[in-house]
Amino acid sequence: MKIPAELKYTAEHLWVKAQDDGTYLAGITDYAQDLLGDIVYVEAPAVGTELSAGKPCGLVESVKTGSDLHAPVSGAVIAINEELQGTPELINENTYEAWIFKLTPSSPNEINDLLDAEAYQKILGE
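RE: above sequence
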């Protein structure tokens, strides 16, 4: 299972990647996509939606089950990965490239509250 060191993580199995322009990309982790199995549908939060950290903001469905997406940090959604609307299985193929939504954080320091790769690995080991 891959847990890239350069990303931040939530206990709800989302990864967050800081972009050079101060925005963040977010998607589900390798662990989450492995648990879900073959992903068949992604409901991303709508562009313009104001997210609150930790609150449900979307859905990922697989042939096995559905799983809520929880906002990793507070902020405004500025883009969604349109490719996933037609080919959600891209998450299974390369979960760390298949981002689900992009947001502008309302409090950039919130990213410091997220888990680093080592802390996320510990959660998975429990």
